[in-house]
Write a structure and sequence with these properties.
This protein has helices at 2-26, 29-55, 62-72, 74-98, 157-225, 233-266, 290-294, 301-324, 380-444, 450-485, and strands at residues 58-60, 102-111, 137-153, 275-277, 330-345, 358-367. The chain is an alpha+beta fold and 499 residues long. Among the domains are: 1-56; 101-110 and 135-153 and 332-367, no CATH class. It has a four-stranded antiparallel β-sheet, with no helix packed on it. Helix 4 (74-98) runs antiparallel to helix 5 (157-225) and helix 5 packs antiparallel against helix 6 (233-266). The longest helix has 69 residues, at 157-225. Mean pLDDT is 78; it is low at 1-15, 48-55 and 345-364.
């Protein structure tokens, strides 16, 4: 957008120069004043729209793009909720394992006589000594603190249960880190993809100007020859090259616009927002050997996850054996400490309860020795099942380690090959630039043919495109390798520092 604005301004200035020369040369000052007035209005309107267009562009660094994406992504918000839920589940498991179920209860019952009726034979109800009707009432209250169940000793099963929950929590944390890293790498890839597409567009526009200049030069040569044979072959070929350059530029502009839509959707920004890309795609080669890379395998997230699966299988097998062996279990249940008050006052022969409070303590101790059934000593199917799960976890760990080492070796060789290719492409770009400059000078002097200048222009554009693409592919390969190892900054490309 900025390039288009400046191109239009340059065209406007060229027209200004042309007409100023025309009116001043003819000394038509009245028309010249009218032209200046019109020109000031046009320049003012052009400045207004140009300022608005430039103001709509946002300077965007890679760090700010990552921050925008993380703060506004719905997937990241969901992952944060999942992380908090995992923490709460671990705390609940620890509380349930080491803390008894304690409850506090209270109750109050009050029975009072509201009124009394005479009997059917006309006799009055029971009266007090003073002749008043006796009030028959009953009051009782109770408050108690109870413990439902408390394991004193269960052969360390509780400890194993908490360990298994902690392993599950840590594994979920590894998955969470991978989700964050994957999202950040997506933003990095999309950001530099945009920068790459923008540079392709700029190169195409520069090439279009060059092809336009070659076309104009061919037209001038044809006019100087004063031939009446039509446009001429050279002009037609130059015109065809110009049409193709315009078409290529338009296609690259469309690709750039599509890349902007995808990028804005990724970081939750307005879809038509355009940016000034501050962070440059610099080429950095990897500075370590293959041996040091392979040594990082056991610290990768995928291997750590497999090790956690193996540890969980070991705990399951150990608890399975505990269920089969006659190991004792000591627990306290039904423990209750309370205070009750019961006051009943009745007349006649109905007995009266004591007004004194009492404390009730209840305790139950159970000791269970399994002998037969699902967890009995003869059920070795459960043991075999747990053993097979453990063997499979060991096999998966070894298989995953071998697969990761193979992948790392292949990725390392691929990156080294890309670095050699980038070095060659850099030399080719320098040579193509020199060839184009020399060819233009020769073409202006008429010392080389149209096919040669055409070949030089195409070689220059291809060299630029290939060099930019190779650097971008090199960065993608490094990110894929870092993702495999679970590394955020493996190669010195720390995308989380301030630009």
């Amino acid at each position: 957008m900025i390039i288009e604005i400046f191109n239009k301004q340059s065209v406007l200035l060229s027209y200004c120069y042309k007409y100023c020369y025309k009116y001043c040369h003819k000394k038509n000052y009245y028309k010249f004043l009218i032209f200046l007035l019109t020109l000031s209005i046009v320049i003012g309107l052009n400045f207004f729209f140009t300022s608005n267009a430039i103001a709509s562009l946002i300077r965007l660094t890679l760090k700010s793009a990552i921050e925008k994406g993380i703060s506004q992504s719905l997937d990241i918000k969901s992952q944060k909720i999942s992380d908090e839920l995992d923490e709460l589940r671990l705390k609940m498991a620890q509380i349930a394992a080491y803390s008894p179920a304690i409850s506090l209860s209270s109750s109050v019952n009050v029975n009072r006589t509201l009124f009394q009726m005479d009997s059917a034979d006309g006799s009055s109800p029971i009266k007090n000594a003073d002749g008043t009707k006796r009030n028959m009432q009953k009051e009782n209250s109770q408050i108690a603190l109870g413990v439902a169940d408390l394991n004193i000793f269960n052969s360390w099963r509780t400890v194993d249960i908490v360990k298994a929950k902690k392993i599950e929590f840590l594994k979920n944390r590894l998955n969470s880190k991978q989700v964050y890293r994957t999202f950040v790498f997506q933003i990095i890839n999309a950001y530099f993809e945009l920068a790459k597409q923008k540079e392709f567009v700029e190169n195409a526009k520069a090439n279009l100007k060059l092809v336009q200049a070659i076309h104009d030069l061919a037209v001038q040569k044809k006019k100087s020859e004063q031939s009446a044979e039509g446009e001429g072959v050279d002009v037609l070929f130059a015109k065809n090259a110009l049409i193709q350059a315009k078409k290529e530029t338009k296609n690259l502009m469309n690709q750039y616009k599509m890349a902007i839509l995808k990028f804005n959707f990724l970081i939750s920004e307005p879809l038509d927002q355009e940016y000034i890309y501050v962070t440059k795609l610099d080429y950095r080669s990897i500075n370590f050997d293959l041996k040091s890379l392979v040594q990082k395998v056991d610290l990768s997230e995928s291997i750590l996850a497999k090790k956690m699966d193996l540890k969980s299988s070991e705990i399951i097998l150990k608890n399975t054996w505990k269920d089969l062996l006659p190991l004792p279990t000591l627990s306290i249940s039904g423990y209750q400490l309370g205070h009750s008050f019961d006051n009943s006052r009745y007349s006649g022969t109905i007995s009266r309860f004591s007004d004194d409070p009492n404390f009730d303590v209840k305790m139950q101790i159970s000791w269970t020795i399994p002998f037969n059934g699902e967890n009995g000593p003869f059920n070795f199917i459960a043991v075999r099942t747990a053993e097979l799960a453990l063997f499979r976890a060991k096999n998966d760990l070894a298989k995953n380690r071998l697969s990761l080492v193979t992948q790392l070796v292949s990725s390392y060789q691929n990156i080294k090959s890309q670095e050699k290719q980038i070095s060659d492409l850099k030399d080719a770009l320098e040579n193509a630039s020199k060839l184009l400059d020399a060819s233009l000078q020769k073409f202006i002097k008429g010392e080389i043919k149209r096919e040669q200048i055409k070949e030089a222009v195409e070689a220059s554009l291809k060299a630029k495109t290939d060099y930019i693409t190779a650097i971008f592919d090199h960065l993608k390969s490094k990110m894929e390798l870092a993702q495999s190892l679970g590394e955020d900054d493996l190669f010195g490309d720390n995308f989380f520092q301030s630009e």
